[in-house]
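Translate sequence into structure tokens.
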Amino acid sequence: MNRYPTRSCLLGLLFLFPVLCLQANQFKVLVFADAYDEWHYRNVPVAKESFEKLAELHFFELTFVDRAKDFAKLTFADYDVIVFISANATWLDENKRAEFKEFVHNGGGIVGVHAASATRNMPTPWPWFEKLIGSPFNGHPPKQTGVLTTEEPGFPACLHLPAKWLWTDEWYVFKPPFPDHLNVVLTVDESTYVPDADNNMGDWHPIAWHHEFEGARVFYTAIGHIPEAYRNELFLQHIYGGIAWAAGQQDSLELKGKK
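Result follows.
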């Protein structure tokens, strides 16, 4: 028996190698959704299922964790993008904070969803993380339907969105003054729902944005309180567009004639 590969076998392997390379995942994503958060734990199983489908659809490698202790055990440098779904990193100890900062400074991507900005009442404040996300959550009126406006239709998280669209959520307001360096991609029209005296921002109410921070691309969207949102294709594509941009795979497009 010939124990050595034949010439035809070697040629076959050479032809197969590029195919295997083409099937490789585009980038690695770490998602942290806190299953012990009293306000958002119902989102976690729905989000996990949907992110697994997103990973298959868009060819990225997914690690999904729902416990803080599991998140803290991971090596952040192993990933291209870290996604916080109604979770944050303010509770990390000093060593893991330093590692997380290094991830950001080395160009790692960050995506925050909904309560990722709810850091004001955390037992271990981290002002640096608040600046990373962009602006801290300051409150919200009861859940209700409002009209969103797409402010940057060429941004990857907004390419599929209509100019105006109905959405039901907790309409987060943010600590004033709102930072003017953030690139706002979505706003909500407060005249289309009922804000209360303590939870309003007036005529300009940002709800999603992006910016670059100390080497990282950061995308944040405040929508996503309701579990069923994580089964909504419009919303999931919105998040994936932010992930692709944060990973450096996609840049904003100039869409002329669309308002």
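Note: The chain has one domain: 25-246.
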